Task: structure prediction
Amino acid sequence: MLSGFFEITGGRSLKGAIKIQGAKNSALPILAATVLVDGEAELRNCPRLSDVDATVNILKHFGCRVSRQGHTLRVDSRGINDTPIPDRLMHEMRSSIIFLGAVLGRFGQAVLSAPGGCDIGLRPIDLHLDAMRAFGAQITESHGRICCTCAQGLRGTDITLAFPSVGATENIMLAAVTAAGKTTVCNAAREPEITDLADFLNTCGARITGAGSGEMVIEGVPALHGGQHAVIPDRIVAGSYLAAAAATGGEITVQNVNPSHLSTVLPVFRDAGCKIDVQAADISLRAPMRPRAVKYIRTMPYPGFPTDLQAPVSAFLCVAEGTSVISETIFENRYKHAAGLNRLGADIRVDGRTAIIEGVPRLTGAAVESPDLRGGFALVLAGLAAEGVTRVGGIRHVERGYEDICGALTSLGAAIVKIDGT
Ligand code: UD1
Result:
Protein backbone atom coordinates (compact mmCIF):
# COMPACT_ATOMS: atom_id res chain seq x y z
CA MET A 1 0.00 0.00 0.00
CA LEU A 2 1.44 3.43 -0.91
CA SER A 3 1.23 5.92 1.90
CA GLY A 4 3.54 8.70 0.79
CA PHE A 5 6.83 9.72 2.33
CA PHE A 6 8.45 12.33 4.51
CA GLU A 7 11.10 14.49 2.89
CA ILE A 8 13.57 15.76 5.45
CA THR A 9 16.41 18.21 4.94
CA GLY A 10 18.65 17.35 7.85
CA GLY A 11 21.26 19.17 9.86
CA ARG A 12 19.06 21.55 11.85
CA SER A 13 19.07 21.45 15.65
CA LEU A 14 15.61 21.03 17.17
CA LYS A 15 14.73 23.95 19.42
CA GLY A 16 11.55 24.97 21.25
CA ALA A 17 8.71 23.39 23.17
CA ILE A 18 5.96 20.92 22.22
CA LYS A 19 2.91 19.60 24.03
CA ILE A 20 2.88 15.82 24.14
CA GLN A 21 -0.24 13.98 22.94
CA GLY A 22 -2.28 11.52 24.99
CA ALA A 23 -0.95 7.96 25.08
CA LYS A 24 -2.00 5.75 22.17
CA ASN A 25 -1.43 2.63 24.24
CA SER A 26 -3.83 3.93 26.89
CA ALA A 27 -6.45 5.31 24.54
CA LEU A 28 -6.86 2.05 22.60
CA PRO A 29 -7.68 -0.31 25.51
CA ILE A 30 -9.81 2.39 27.16
CA LEU A 31 -11.81 2.74 23.95
CA ALA A 32 -12.21 -1.05 23.85
CA ALA A 33 -13.37 -0.90 27.47
CA THR A 34 -16.27 1.37 26.49
CA VAL A 35 -17.97 -1.74 25.04
CA LEU A 36 -18.58 -2.72 28.68
CA VAL A 37 -20.12 0.62 29.63
CA ASP A 38 -23.89 0.90 29.81
CA GLY A 39 -23.86 4.67 29.32
CA GLU A 40 -21.68 7.41 27.87
CA ALA A 41 -17.91 7.58 28.35
CA GLU A 42 -16.11 10.87 27.79
CA LEU A 43 -12.40 10.56 27.04
CA ARG A 44 -10.27 13.69 27.03
CA ASN A 45 -6.69 13.95 25.70
CA CYS A 46 -7.40 11.26 23.11
CA PRO A 47 -4.76 11.49 20.35
CA ARG A 48 -5.74 11.92 16.68
CA LEU A 49 -4.20 8.82 15.14
CA SER A 50 -5.10 6.21 12.53
CA ASP A 51 -5.04 3.48 15.25
CA VAL A 52 -7.62 5.45 17.24
CA ASP A 53 -9.75 5.80 14.08
CA ALA A 54 -9.48 2.03 13.51
CA THR A 55 -10.66 1.38 17.09
CA VAL A 56 -13.54 3.82 16.67
CA ASN A 57 -14.55 2.00 13.48
CA ILE A 58 -14.78 -1.25 15.44
CA LEU A 59 -16.87 0.48 18.14
CA LYS A 60 -19.21 1.87 15.47
CA HIS A 61 -19.48 -1.60 14.01
CA PHE A 62 -20.97 -2.74 17.34
CA GLY A 63 -23.42 0.16 17.18
CA CYS A 64 -21.64 2.50 19.62
CA ARG A 65 -22.39 6.15 18.92
CA VAL A 66 -19.04 7.94 18.80
CA SER A 67 -18.41 11.66 18.40
CA ARG A 68 -15.22 13.69 18.55
CA GLN A 69 -14.59 17.30 19.44
CA GLY A 70 -10.91 18.09 19.20
CA HIS A 71 -9.18 15.66 21.52
CA THR A 72 -12.36 14.63 23.35
CA LEU A 73 -14.18 11.46 22.28
CA ARG A 74 -17.64 10.55 23.50
CA VAL A 75 -18.74 6.94 23.22
CA ASP A 76 -22.31 5.93 23.99
CA SER A 77 -22.52 2.13 24.21
CA ARG A 78 -26.16 1.78 25.29
CA GLY A 79 -28.11 -0.82 23.34
CA ILE A 80 -25.18 -2.10 21.25
CA ASN A 81 -25.28 -5.33 19.23
CA ASP A 82 -23.21 -8.47 19.19
CA THR A 83 -21.83 -8.82 15.66
CA PRO A 84 -18.51 -10.43 14.64
CA ILE A 85 -15.75 -7.92 13.88
CA PRO A 86 -15.00 -8.16 10.13
CA ASP A 87 -11.42 -9.16 9.20
CA ARG A 88 -10.89 -5.86 7.39
CA LEU A 89 -11.36 -3.94 10.67
CA MET A 90 -9.39 -6.44 12.78
CA HIS A 91 -6.39 -6.37 10.48
CA GLU A 92 -6.03 -2.61 10.69
CA MET A 93 -4.11 -2.93 13.93
CA ARG A 94 -2.65 -5.50 16.25
CA SER A 95 -4.34 -4.22 19.34
CA SER A 96 -7.85 -5.11 18.11
CA ILE A 97 -7.22 -8.30 20.15
CA ILE A 98 -7.89 -6.05 23.12
CA PHE A 99 -11.60 -6.22 22.25
CA LEU A 100 -11.61 -9.89 23.25
CA GLY A 101 -12.12 -9.45 27.01
CA ALA A 102 -14.56 -6.55 26.64
CA VAL A 103 -16.72 -8.21 23.98
CA LEU A 104 -16.76 -11.52 25.83
CA GLY A 105 -17.71 -9.67 29.01
CA ARG A 106 -20.55 -7.77 27.38
CA PHE A 107 -22.01 -10.40 25.03
CA GLY A 108 -20.81 -13.76 26.39
CA GLN A 109 -19.17 -14.49 23.06
CA ALA A 110 -16.59 -12.99 20.74
CA VAL A 111 -15.47 -13.84 17.22
CA LEU A 112 -12.21 -12.25 16.17
CA SER A 113 -9.65 -12.85 13.46
CA ALA A 114 -5.91 -13.19 14.04
CA PRO A 115 -4.47 -9.79 14.92
CA GLY A 116 -2.58 -7.46 12.54
CA GLY A 117 -0.23 -4.59 13.48
CA CYS A 118 3.53 -4.07 13.53
CA ASP A 119 5.69 -6.86 12.18
CA ILE A 120 8.13 -6.95 15.09
CA GLY A 121 8.06 -10.63 15.95
CA LEU A 122 5.69 -13.50 16.45
CA ARG A 123 3.39 -11.65 18.85
CA PRO A 124 1.45 -14.73 19.96
CA ILE A 125 -1.81 -14.41 21.90
CA ASP A 126 -1.58 -17.62 23.93
CA LEU A 127 -1.58 -15.73 27.25
CA HIS A 128 -4.77 -13.89 26.25
CA LEU A 129 -6.54 -17.10 25.25
CA ASP A 130 -5.38 -19.11 28.29
CA ALA A 131 -6.71 -16.32 30.52
CA MET A 132 -10.11 -16.31 28.81
CA ARG A 133 -10.29 -20.11 29.30
CA ALA A 134 -9.58 -19.57 33.01
CA PHE A 135 -12.69 -17.33 33.12
CA GLY A 136 -14.70 -20.26 31.74
CA ALA A 137 -14.70 -19.42 28.03
CA GLN A 138 -14.54 -22.12 25.35
CA ILE A 139 -12.26 -21.21 22.48
CA THR A 140 -12.03 -22.66 19.01
CA GLU A 141 -9.61 -21.47 16.35
CA SER A 142 -9.94 -22.22 12.65
CA HIS A 143 -9.01 -20.48 9.39
CA GLY A 144 -7.49 -17.54 11.27
CA ARG A 145 -10.67 -16.89 13.26
CA ILE A 146 -10.93 -17.18 17.00
CA CYS A 147 -14.33 -18.01 18.41
CA CYS A 148 -14.84 -17.59 22.17
CA THR A 149 -18.06 -18.39 23.95
CA CYS A 150 -19.17 -18.36 27.52
CA ALA A 151 -22.91 -18.93 27.59
CA GLN A 152 -23.02 -19.08 31.41
CA GLY A 153 -21.11 -15.79 31.76
CA LEU A 154 -17.52 -15.26 32.88
CA ARG A 155 -16.46 -16.39 36.36
CA GLY A 156 -13.73 -14.65 38.38
CA THR A 157 -10.52 -16.66 38.67
CA ASP A 158 -6.88 -16.61 39.82
CA ILE A 159 -4.35 -16.05 37.05
CA THR A 160 -0.56 -16.05 37.16
CA LEU A 161 0.96 -14.72 33.97
CA ALA A 162 4.13 -16.46 32.77
CA PHE A 163 5.22 -13.06 31.40
CA PRO A 164 3.78 -9.64 32.34
CA SER A 165 2.19 -9.09 28.93
CA VAL A 166 0.59 -5.66 28.61
CA GLY A 167 -2.19 -6.79 26.25
CA ALA A 168 -2.98 -9.97 28.18
CA THR A 169 -3.19 -8.00 31.45
CA GLU A 170 -5.60 -5.55 29.78
CA ASN A 171 -7.76 -8.35 28.43
CA ILE A 172 -7.88 -9.99 31.86
CA MET A 173 -8.95 -6.69 33.43
CA LEU A 174 -11.67 -6.21 30.82
CA ALA A 175 -12.98 -9.75 31.27
CA ALA A 176 -12.81 -9.55 35.06
CA VAL A 177 -14.58 -6.26 35.76
CA THR A 178 -18.05 -7.67 35.07
CA ALA A 179 -17.28 -11.37 35.74
CA ALA A 180 -19.01 -13.07 38.65
CA GLY A 181 -16.83 -12.93 41.77
CA LYS A 182 -13.21 -12.07 42.38
CA THR A 183 -10.20 -12.27 40.04
CA THR A 184 -6.59 -12.06 41.13
CA VAL A 185 -3.73 -11.48 38.70
CA CYS A 186 -0.13 -12.28 39.64
CA ASN A 187 2.79 -10.98 37.57
CA ALA A 188 0.48 -8.47 35.91
CA ALA A 189 2.06 -5.84 33.65
CA ARG A 190 2.88 -2.66 35.58
CA GLU A 191 2.95 -0.15 32.71
CA PRO A 192 1.35 3.27 33.36
CA GLU A 193 -1.19 2.41 30.66
CA ILE A 194 -2.43 -0.45 32.86
CA THR A 195 -3.00 1.97 35.74
CA ASP A 196 -4.74 4.37 33.36
CA LEU A 197 -7.11 1.64 32.17
CA ALA A 198 -7.85 0.70 35.80
CA ASP A 199 -8.53 4.36 36.64
CA PHE A 200 -10.99 4.64 33.75
CA LEU A 201 -12.75 1.38 34.65
CA ASN A 202 -12.96 2.36 38.34
CA THR A 203 -14.45 5.74 37.33
CA CYS A 204 -17.17 3.72 35.59
CA GLY A 205 -17.89 1.64 38.69
CA ALA A 206 -15.34 -1.20 38.45
CA ARG A 207 -13.55 -2.42 41.60
CA ILE A 208 -9.88 -2.86 40.74
CA THR A 209 -7.08 -2.54 43.28
CA GLY A 210 -3.33 -2.97 42.89
CA ALA A 211 -3.01 -1.78 39.27
CA GLY A 212 0.62 -0.86 38.61
CA SER A 213 1.93 -3.13 41.38
CA GLY A 214 2.04 -6.45 39.55
CA GLU A 215 -0.61 -7.99 41.83
CA MET A 216 -4.15 -6.96 40.97
CA VAL A 217 -7.46 -7.83 42.58
CA ILE A 218 -10.68 -7.25 40.66
CA GLU A 219 -14.08 -7.69 42.29
CA GLY A 220 -16.65 -8.21 39.55
CA VAL A 221 -19.63 -5.81 39.39
CA PRO A 222 -22.90 -6.42 37.49
CA ALA A 223 -22.41 -3.54 35.03
CA LEU A 224 -20.35 -0.40 34.35
CA HIS A 225 -21.88 3.05 34.12
CA GLY A 226 -20.70 6.09 32.13
CA GLY A 227 -17.84 8.29 33.27
CA GLN A 228 -15.24 10.88 32.31
CA HIS A 229 -11.53 10.30 32.03
CA ALA A 230 -8.39 12.05 30.71
CA VAL A 231 -5.86 9.80 28.97
CA ILE A 232 -2.29 9.99 30.39
CA PRO A 233 0.47 11.64 28.33
CA ASP A 234 2.34 9.47 25.84
CA ARG A 235 5.69 8.63 27.45
CA ILE A 236 6.95 6.99 24.26
CA VAL A 237 6.22 10.05 22.11
CA ALA A 238 7.89 12.26 24.74
CA GLY A 239 10.98 10.02 24.75
CA SER A 240 11.03 9.95 20.95
CA TYR A 241 11.17 13.76 20.64
CA LEU A 242 13.83 13.93 23.36
CA ALA A 243 15.90 11.43 21.35
CA ALA A 244 15.46 13.58 18.23
CA ALA A 245 16.74 16.62 20.13
CA ALA A 246 19.68 14.60 21.45
CA ALA A 247 20.62 13.53 17.90
CA THR A 248 20.56 17.08 16.49
CA GLY A 249 22.42 18.98 19.21
CA GLY A 250 19.07 20.50 20.11
CA GLU A 251 17.42 22.08 23.10
CA ILE A 252 13.74 21.25 23.60
CA THR A 253 11.07 21.04 26.27
CA VAL A 254 8.39 18.38 26.13
CA GLN A 255 5.32 19.61 27.97
CA ASN A 256 2.31 17.86 29.45
CA VAL A 257 4.23 14.72 30.42
CA ASN A 258 4.52 12.62 33.56
CA PRO A 259 8.29 12.57 34.20
CA SER A 260 8.00 9.61 36.58
CA HIS A 261 6.91 7.49 33.59
CA LEU A 262 10.35 8.12 32.05
CA SER A 263 12.43 7.35 35.14
CA THR A 264 14.59 4.73 33.40
CA VAL A 265 14.78 6.69 30.14
CA LEU A 266 16.07 10.06 31.36
CA PRO A 267 19.30 8.53 32.81
CA VAL A 268 20.16 7.27 29.31
CA PHE A 269 20.08 10.83 27.97
CA ARG A 270 22.14 12.02 30.95
CA ASP A 271 24.71 9.25 30.30
CA ALA A 272 24.90 10.52 26.72
CA GLY A 273 25.91 13.95 27.99
CA CYS A 274 22.54 15.72 27.72
CA LYS A 275 21.46 18.11 30.42
CA ILE A 276 17.99 17.21 31.68
CA ASP A 277 15.81 19.50 33.74
CA VAL A 278 12.47 18.32 35.13
CA GLN A 279 9.84 20.85 36.24
CA ALA A 280 6.38 19.49 37.18
CA ALA A 281 4.95 18.25 33.86
CA ASP A 282 7.81 19.52 31.66
CA ILE A 283 11.10 17.87 30.73
CA SER A 284 13.81 20.01 29.11
CA LEU A 285 16.80 18.51 27.34
CA ARG A 286 19.92 20.36 26.19
CA ALA A 287 22.12 18.21 24.01
CA PRO A 288 25.88 18.50 23.60
CA MET A 289 27.33 19.12 20.11
CA ARG A 290 27.82 15.36 19.89
CA PRO A 291 26.33 12.88 22.35
CA ARG A 292 28.43 10.18 24.02
CA ALA A 293 27.76 6.48 23.50
CA VAL A 294 25.77 4.69 26.20
CA LYS A 295 27.50 1.46 27.18
CA TYR A 296 24.53 -0.84 27.61
CA ILE A 297 20.75 -0.59 27.36
CA ARG A 298 18.46 -3.52 27.99
CA THR A 299 14.75 -3.33 27.21
CA MET A 300 12.57 -4.64 30.02
CA PRO A 301 8.93 -4.60 31.13
CA TYR A 302 8.00 -1.38 32.99
CA PRO A 303 9.59 0.20 34.95
CA GLY A 304 12.57 -0.97 32.87
CA PHE A 305 13.69 0.71 29.67
CA PRO A 306 10.75 0.48 27.20
CA THR A 307 11.10 -1.60 24.06
CA ASP A 308 9.10 1.10 22.24
CA LEU A 309 11.98 3.56 22.74
CA GLN A 310 14.67 1.13 21.64
CA ALA A 311 14.50 2.19 17.97
CA PRO A 312 14.45 6.00 18.53
CA VAL A 313 17.27 5.76 21.08
CA SER A 314 19.29 3.44 18.78
CA ALA A 315 18.99 6.11 16.09
CA PHE A 316 20.43 8.90 18.23
CA LEU A 317 23.24 6.62 19.41
CA CYS A 318 24.26 6.21 15.74
CA VAL A 319 25.80 9.69 15.88
CA ALA A 320 27.23 9.34 19.41
CA GLU A 321 30.94 9.18 20.11
CA GLY A 322 31.90 5.59 20.95
CA THR A 323 30.25 2.17 21.00
CA SER A 324 26.77 1.47 22.43
CA VAL A 325 25.28 -1.96 23.01
CA ILE A 326 21.54 -2.64 23.12
CA SER A 327 19.84 -5.83 24.19
CA GLU A 328 16.19 -6.26 23.12
CA THR A 329 14.55 -8.73 25.50
CA ILE A 330 10.84 -8.13 24.75
CA PHE A 331 10.39 -8.72 21.02
CA GLU A 332 12.57 -11.04 18.93
CA ASN A 333 12.48 -9.04 15.71
CA ARG A 334 12.74 -5.42 16.65
CA TYR A 335 15.86 -4.24 14.81
CA LYS A 336 14.32 -3.82 11.37
CA HIS A 337 15.19 -0.12 11.44
CA ALA A 338 18.93 -1.00 11.59
CA ALA A 339 19.15 -1.65 7.83
CA GLY A 340 17.64 1.78 7.07
CA LEU A 341 19.90 3.51 9.57
CA ASN A 342 22.92 1.83 7.98
CA ARG A 343 21.79 3.15 4.58
CA LEU A 344 22.14 6.62 6.08
CA GLY A 345 25.73 5.77 7.03
CA ALA A 346 25.25 4.35 10.53
CA ASP A 347 27.29 1.39 11.71
CA ILE A 348 24.98 -1.06 13.47
CA ARG A 349 25.62 -4.79 13.69
CA VAL A 350 22.74 -6.93 14.85
CA ASP A 351 23.37 -10.34 16.34
CA GLY A 352 20.17 -11.98 17.53
CA ARG A 353 18.74 -9.81 20.28
CA THR A 354 21.86 -7.62 20.54
CA ALA A 355 22.71 -4.53 18.51
CA ILE A 356 26.20 -3.03 18.55
CA ILE A 357 26.23 0.58 17.46
CA GLU A 358 29.56 2.16 16.52
CA GLY A 359 28.87 5.89 16.56
CA VAL A 360 29.79 7.78 13.38
CA PRO A 361 30.53 11.53 13.14
CA ARG A 362 27.81 12.11 10.58
CA LEU A 363 24.94 10.48 8.67
CA THR A 364 24.05 11.31 5.07
CA GLY A 365 20.60 11.51 3.52
CA ALA A 366 19.13 8.55 1.60
CA ALA A 367 15.77 7.00 0.66
CA VAL A 368 14.58 4.51 3.29
CA GLU A 369 11.38 2.69 4.19
CA SER A 370 9.70 2.56 7.62
CA PRO A 371 9.64 -1.04 8.81
CA ASP A 372 7.21 -0.41 11.68
CA LEU A 373 5.90 2.38 13.93
CA ARG A 374 8.87 3.08 16.22
CA GLY A 375 11.41 2.01 13.60
CA GLY A 376 9.84 4.54 11.24
CA PHE A 377 10.28 7.31 13.79
CA ALA A 378 13.92 6.22 14.23
CA LEU A 379 14.50 6.78 10.50
CA VAL A 380 12.84 10.20 10.62
CA LEU A 381 15.05 11.07 13.59
CA ALA A 382 18.17 9.94 11.71
CA GLY A 383 17.08 12.00 8.70
CA LEU A 384 16.86 15.09 10.94
CA ALA A 385 20.46 14.50 12.05
CA ALA A 386 21.79 13.57 8.58
CA GLU A 387 23.43 15.87 6.05
CA GLY A 388 21.33 16.38 2.93
CA VAL A 389 17.90 15.05 2.04
CA THR A 390 16.31 11.89 3.44
CA ARG A 391 13.10 10.36 2.20
CA VAL A 392 11.29 8.08 4.64
CA GLY A 393 8.55 5.97 3.01
CA GLY A 394 5.86 3.81 4.59
CA ILE A 395 4.70 6.71 6.73
CA ARG A 396 1.38 5.05 7.53
CA HIS A 397 3.34 3.11 10.16
CA VAL A 398 4.62 6.31 11.78
CA GLU A 399 1.23 8.00 11.65
CA ARG A 400 -0.27 5.15 13.69
CA GLY A 401 1.49 6.57 16.74
CA TYR A 402 2.67 10.17 16.24
CA GLU A 403 0.02 12.85 15.92
CA ASP A 404 0.87 15.50 13.32
CA ILE A 405 4.54 14.57 13.33
CA CYS A 406 5.40 17.04 10.56
CA GLY A 407 3.68 19.91 12.39
CA ALA A 408 5.40 19.03 15.67
CA LEU A 409 8.88 18.76 14.14
CA THR A 410 8.40 21.86 11.98
CA SER A 411 7.46 23.85 15.09
CA LEU A 412 10.81 22.75 16.55
CA GLY A 413 12.67 24.09 13.51
CA ALA A 414 13.00 20.91 11.43
CA ALA A 415 12.68 20.95 7.64
CA ILE A 416 10.22 18.10 6.99
CA VAL A 417 7.34 17.85 4.56
CA LYS A 418 4.88 15.07 3.89
CA ILE A 419 4.49 14.07 0.26
CA ASP A 420 1.25 12.15 -0.18
CA GLY A 421 1.28 8.79 -1.96
CA THR A 422 -0.34 8.38 -5.33
C1 UD1 B 1 2.09 -3.49 24.12
C2 UD1 B 1 2.21 -2.17 23.41
C3 UD1 B 1 3.48 -2.13 22.58
C4 UD1 B 1 4.69 -2.45 23.45
C5 UD1 B 1 4.46 -3.73 24.25
C6 UD1 B 1 5.56 -4.02 25.27
C7 UD1 B 1 -0.10 -1.54 23.01
C8 UD1 B 1 -1.18 -1.30 22.02
N1 UD1 B 1 1.05 -2.01 22.52
O1 UD1 B 1 2.01 -4.50 23.13
O2 UD1 B 1 3.62 -0.82 22.03
O3 UD1 B 1 5.83 -2.59 22.65
O4 UD1 B 1 3.22 -3.67 24.97
O5 UD1 B 1 5.69 -2.95 26.13
O6 UD1 B 1 -0.25 -1.29 24.19
N2 UD1 B 1 3.53 -12.51 24.44
C9 UD1 B 1 3.33 -13.87 24.41
N3 UD1 B 1 2.04 -14.33 24.46
C10 UD1 B 1 0.98 -13.51 24.56
C11 UD1 B 1 1.19 -12.11 24.61
C12 UD1 B 1 2.48 -11.64 24.54
O7 UD1 B 1 4.28 -14.64 24.30
O8 UD1 B 1 -0.16 -13.99 24.62
C13 UD1 B 1 4.90 -11.98 24.32
C14 UD1 B 1 5.08 -11.17 23.04
O9 UD1 B 1 5.38 -12.00 21.96
C15 UD1 B 1 6.24 -10.28 23.40
C16 UD1 B 1 6.03 -10.02 24.89
O10 UD1 B 1 5.13 -11.03 25.34
O11 UD1 B 1 7.46 -10.97 23.20
C17 UD1 B 1 5.45 -8.66 25.19
O12 UD1 B 1 4.20 -8.52 24.60
P1 UD1 B 1 3.03 -7.67 25.26
O13 UD1 B 1 3.47 -7.08 26.56
O14 UD1 B 1 1.81 -8.51 25.25
O15 UD1 B 1 2.89 -6.51 24.20
P2 UD1 B 1 1.56 -5.98 23.52
O16 UD1 B 1 0.48 -5.91 24.53
O17 UD1 B 1 1.34 -6.70 22.26
